[in-house]
Structures are given as C-alpha cells and as structure tokens.
TrEMBL record, chain A:
GO terms for biological process: DNA-templated transcription initiation. This is TATA box-binding protein-like 1. It comes from the Eukaryota. SUPFAM superfamilies: TATA-box binding protein-like. It comes from Sparus aurata. The keyword Transcription regulation applies. GO terms for molecular function: DNA binding.
Amino acid sequence: MDSSNDDALDIIITNVVATFRTRCHLNLRTIALEGTNVIYKPEVGKVLMKLRKPKITASIWSSGKIICTGATSEDEAKLGARRLARVLQKLGFKVRFSAFKVVNVLAVCSMPFAIRLIDFTKKNRPIASYEPELHPAVTYRIKHLKATIQVFSTGSITVTGTMGSFDFREAIRAMPLR
Amino acid sequence: MLTNTGPVAKLYLSIIDDVIENMRELFSDEGLEDRVLDDLRHLWESKMMQSKAMEDFRKNSINSSNFVLQLPASYSQTDQEVTASVVIPASQSIYSFPRLKNNSDTLATFSLPAGLAYPVQIPAGVTLQTASGQLYKVNVPVVVTQAAAGQQPVSRPTQKVTEWREPAAPRPAAVAPNTTHPQEVEPSSAPAPSVTQPPQPNTNYVPPTEESSLPQQPQDPAADTLLLQGADSPEPEFRLEESEPSPQPEPMNLSMTASPCGQSLDFQTGTEETLTQTAPLKSRDVDDILKQVIEEEREKAERARSLTSAKTDSPSEAVLGLDLDYSYSELSDIVQLDGPAGNSDLEEEEGAPLDENDFLGIINAEAIKALQEGDGSSDGNSISSSSDGEGADELANVEDEDPLNSGDDVIEQDIPDLFDTDNVIVCQYDKIHRSKNRWKFHLKDGVMCYGGRDYVFSKAVGEAEW
C-alpha cells in the first residue's frame, strides 16, 4: 500500500538462530576441557562454544542438541553449524550433522519517518497490540507469515520470524503504514 | 620490572632452601651423605639460573640495595683509604663508590647493590644505614657477613664494634630493650627479611646460603640487619643489630607487638632467648592482615626450626623469630609483588587455565584468523552445493541430509598457535567475567612465566578481548 519506499528500505538481518542435532550423546566435560573457546555452564548443563569465522555462539547440550545463534545469514548459520559439528567430531564424538533448521531470523530496518504509534494501533486494531508500559513498540503479528513485527516510534522496525529472509519484505509490505 | 625479579629470585631460593633443609634429615636417615643434598641444591640452583626464569639475583639493580653507606664528611680525605678497604667481593661492583666520593661535599653516600655478596668489609668510621633507615656507626672495621648456620649470632656481637644508632626514631637510640615495639620497620624498607617466610622475597637478601661465609669475627654486626633469611636456612645468621656493646639480656620483646609494620626495627640482640620465646608470640601479634600469611610461614619456620634445632641454638631461632616482624612488615610493602602466602608450591591449582591460554593464544593468532577469512567464504559455497546434492539421498531415519563430508568440505578451525605461547599463568581465580566479547579476570596466588621470566603474584587483574 503505502510501502512505496519499499525498494529503498534496507533490511538488515542481524541474527539467525538455528538448531541441529548431532545424533549422539555429548560429554560436556570433555568438550569444556578440550575444546577451544568454550564456556562451561554446569549449573545449566550446557557448553557455549564461540566461533570466530562465522561469528557464532553455539549452545551445546549433552543430548546432542545444538543451538546456533549470532549468524548474519542463513547460509552462514549453516556453515557455522557444520564447522561446529566438525569441531565436535575432532574432539572424538561420533557426530552426524542432522536436522539443521533455522528457527528464527531477526531483521531490522528503519523508516525514514517517525510513526505515530497510537494512531497506528487504532487503525490496525486486532493485529497490532501496543502496551506502552510494557514495551515501547507496537507489536504486529502476521499470522500467515509467522512473523512478528515491532514498530517503534522512531521509525525503526524489527522483524522476527521463522520464515526465510526474503519474506521480510513481504512482511513489511503487508504492514499498513501511515 | 627489574625490581620484580629480585623478589622472585628470592622466593625461589627460599623455596629451594626450604625443600633442601627439610630433606636433610630424611636424607641422612636414608644414609645418604649431605653432600648429595648439596649437590642437588647446586644443580637445582644452576638450572634455575640457566633457565633465566628469573634474573640472576646477583645482578639486581642497584635500586634495591640493602643499605646505604654514608661516609661522614671527614672521610673525604680518607676516601682512598676507605675505598680500598671497602672491598666488596661481589663480582659486580655496581655501586659507584669512587664516584660518590667526588660528588658529595659533605656526605658521600652510595648504595650497595642488593646482590651484594657477603662478606663485606666495612672500614671504621663509616656509618651504615639500612634501607629501613637505621643508622649504624661503625667504629671499628667490621666485616658484615651472613652468618652461616650454627654461628653464634647476635649474642656475641655485643662486643660490638658497632653501636647502633637509630635514625630519628622516636625511641632513644639506646636499645630500648623492653619496649614492646623495639622493632619498627619502615614501610619503605624492603629489608625486613623474614626468616619465617621462606618464600618471602627479601629484596635485601640475595644471599644464597652457600655464599654466606662464616663470620670470621665474632662480631658481625649485621649491617643489613635482618638478615634473617628463610626460616629454613640453617644459617640464620644475620646478626641482629645490637644496640649496645653490652649484651642486653633483657627480653626483647621483639615486639610481637611490632605489629605496626610501619616502624623501624631495632633489635637488641642480647635477648635471643627471649626472642625465641617471643617468637611465637610475635606471630600472634602480627597484623591481622598479614596474620594468615605469617601463619603459614611460621609453620614452615617451626619445621625449619625443629629441623635445625640441633644445629642452631636458640639465638638463631630467636633471630628467626625476630624476622617475623620484618617479614610481615615486608609483606605489607611487597605484598603485591611477592607471593607471600608461602608459595612453596609453585603450581597452584588452575582456575581457568584454558581461558587464559586461549586468550593469550588467540590474541597472537588474530592475524592467522584474518588470513583464513578468505578461505572460509569459498568453502561456504562448496558446502551448500554439496549438501543440496546429498539432500536427494536422504536416509529414511535422518530427517535432513547427513553429510558432514568428514571434514572435506567443512573447514576446521585452525588455531594452531593457540597453545604455542610460552606465556603461561598458573593461578587460582576469584572471578572471571564476560560481557559479549570483553573478559575481565580477577586472579590470585599465581605464578606466571612471561617472556621467559617468572613472576609471582598474589593478586592479578586482567582484561582481554576475544
């Protein structure tokens, strides 16, 4: 609708969260002692391993489930996940890279104009929800895209959802602005 | 930095002393000669020197000298004589003895290097001032040495060639024997050696016990005073400064109350016996702050004493006890530099060794990582393409592809330089904190080998970026 300025929008993906499984039990203590760049959190029961190349932080559980966060694109997330699995394999675990799934993608974009939140909310009654005491942004949920959009009064918009990154534009377009 | 090597060297030497002395009895029980033990000690020390983990203590800079020789103005004439007579056998005559003569109008003062090897001959008429500020006027040529074990220290020297005067101390120069705080150690003085603190780095004392020569003369005023070296050393020597020629049999309460670390010491040696008795008291009176530290040392001292009880007589013990005062006063001064807490074990339990090493290595390997950037991107493409191909073959059980291609496609994280560093810290940790990629370390009781040299610390704070 009013997203004529769509093309000029810069949607920047800031975070991609993915999970995968190693299909084998992992000994967290071994990983903590022998791995490089690891933080052991025995109270929670996980090991954080940070990678440099794709800047990624992975939470490793002993069950073999690994959550990979911090990537800037889905491909990077996958690459990082594979690298991580490779590291675990080198540590001696019989790791199989399976069930890689991108769970969440967070993108940010900024409108060149300010937004009047109250009016916006009024116009989009059922879909948008605004609770200024809880959060300073309007939360706009697009069900069919499974995306959540947060609209700030400064014009910044964050989109977080499970869809692919290319769907972000769809989401923003779907949002009636002004 | 230089000043740090002194304490470390002393610490290590005192550790060596401690171990060797404690072993002496065992060795003799086994029927091995003492010579074996001495050989071991020589070997150990020479290896330590060779490794240059710490600088040769003998080469310590002049800054950490034990004491300052002040020549009275009248000496300007007799400079030559003085110089000649003050023969310091130390290999490095760093101190600018001759130089100073020329400069000063009134007083020629110069510092003797800390690494001074005893014995030192001091001509008459010279006023010695220890780092603690105590002044000793030498009336008769004396030889300052480190007494070897079994020497009759203090008590004898009463004949005193020297009379000790206090510097502007509030107390009268007279040996205030019974004053509860006869000893005071000036905060600045490193010299308070502590016999009871074997690990206590005495900046004054370098002395490898082997170097100590038996004092030729009965009176060996310990100009350096507190030469009480490691408690374990069987040669406690270090003649205590004696105040008056006459022995002061009165119990010197070596002031356990000497608790105030900041005061100058003067001990009246005459009372070795009392010293001994008061020795244990001393520890009690020690400042709370240093109490725990001292306790440890004392235990060691006790052991040492028990070991050396046969050899040394009470005076030495008294001397040992005396050192307690110094030790903690010294501790208060140097607590940050040395590991006062009896770091007899060099290796403490590792707190977070991996992290330490990681960061040390990571920082070094940054460049290499950057180089790998280029490789990574190209690999990414190959991986995605291969996985697509594999997807078609997916096994029934596996929900998704299960390639992993055994590392062919996936590049391993090569950080080979990570553990190549020789800089290692072995310590315990108080707190390790991280915010994003900024790390903060609060460490304690550690030894670190940095740039080939060893440093010992009781507290360390660090920051790093990953």
